[in-house]
Design a protein that fits this description.
Blueprint (H helix, E strand, L loop, with lengths): L2 H10 L6 E6 L2 H17 L3 H8 L6 E4 L8 H11 L9 E5 L7 H12 L5 E7 L7 H4 L3 E5 L4 H11 L4 H8 L5 H10 L2 H17 L1 H14 L3 H22 L12 H8 L4 H19 L4 H13 L1
Parallel strand pairs: 1-4, 1-5, 2-3, 3-4
Helix pairs in contact: 1-2, 2-3, 4-5, 7-8, 10-11, 10-12, 11-15, 12-13, 12-14, 14-15
Length: 309
């Protein structure tokens, strides 16, 4: 049963909550489910009404989002003013706040007051990919709806078919995130094709020419100048060695960098399971050090040194 089917069943059974917190990594699924649930609450089967909600043009529906770092104070003030009014066309009012973790503490407290004493027939739907950043008091006043991460293959296909990604770049993004918004922002901000090429060349050197891999750290970091790109590099390197593990266990349908399958077959014969496990653990440790603000050059050099050792 999908999330919208569960929510629909609860609605039909008269178990509508005043506040929902949608949480998970699949932001696209959360957004589409929130919209469908709002249409159900406000419109039932009225197609004209549903179209108004879809276009964010229904007087009893309010949708808050931002492309900036924080949701602004005036957006929340407008929302509170809107929701304190009586419904105009429906029996209920529904408001959706996308990326709820972007609220300031002041904004969260404003919503908290709203959740503690909700106006009659008002439903809040809060969406978050980072629920750990939300106040516990908000969590305790919401019904939680958990969304499973989008499957990697589905994510790649979505980027190719709906976001104009090439399949190689979509595959690269899938090593780092399953959020379409994050992938799109990265693709717009950086040249990812040259970065992908440099990363995979460095992975090849890690296996075949480790002295050259040590020298290659300089070139790698020329293309990955900030922490986000360095995290992407580590995620891609990890995926490369996960691919080798899939080759060894005969799960070729799971590999990410499919154009390397021929090379993988040769490399996999030279590495045993213990070595591959050690490499993947080394990359995991490198990621922790990067997050602890250890020098990126040192982080990547240590990967090479530990592989040589």
């Amino acid at each position: 049963m999908t999330e919208i089917e569960r929510l629909t069943a609860a609605y039909r059974n008269g178990k509508l909550s005043h506040a929902y917190l949608f949480e998970g990594n699949d932001a696209e699924a959360m957004t589409s489910t929130a919209l469908a649930f709002a249409q159900l609450i406000l419109c039932q089967d009225n197609e004209q009404c549903r179209m108004k909600v879809e276009m964010h043009n229904h007087p009893d529906f309010h949708y808050v989002r931002t492309d900036e770092t924080n949701i602004k104070k005036d957006q929340i003030e407008q929302l509170v003013h809107h929701m304190n009014r009586l419904p105009i066309e429906s029996d209920y009012k529904v408001y959706v706040i996308q990326d709820f973790e972007k609220l300031t503490v002041q904004g969260e407290n404003s919503i908290l007051k709203f959740l503690e004493e909700p106006p009659t027939n008002t439903v809040a739907i809060l969406l978050s990919t980072k629920p750990e950043q939300i106040l516990d008091t908000i969590h305790s006043r919401c019904q939680h709806v958990y969304f499973k991460p989008m499957q990697r293959a589905d994510f790649v296909t979505y980027l190719v078919e709906h976001a104009e990604f090439t399949r190689p770049i979509a595959a690269l993004m899938s090593t780092y995130t399953t959020q379409v918004e994050v992938a799109t922002q990265l693709a717009e901000a950086y040249e990812l094709a040259p970065l992908r090429q440099v990363i995979l060349q460095w992975c090849d050197k890690l296996v075949k020419q480790q002295d050259m891999a040590l020298i290659g750290v300089i070139e790698l970091l020329k293309h990955a100048k900030n922490k986000q790109l360095q995290q992407l590099v580590l995620a891609t390197v990890n995926a490369y060695f996960q691919d080798l593990m899939y080759i060894k266990v005969g799960m070729t349908e799971k590999i990410i960098f499919t154009e390397l399958q021929g090379d993988y077959q040769t490399i996999a014969t030279k590495l045993d399971y213990r070595q591959l496990t050690h490499i993947i653990e080394t990359i995991t440790e490198a990621h922790k050090k990067l997050m602890q603000n250890v020098s990126p050059a040192l982080v990547f050099e240590q990967i090479v040194i530990k592989m040589k050792g």
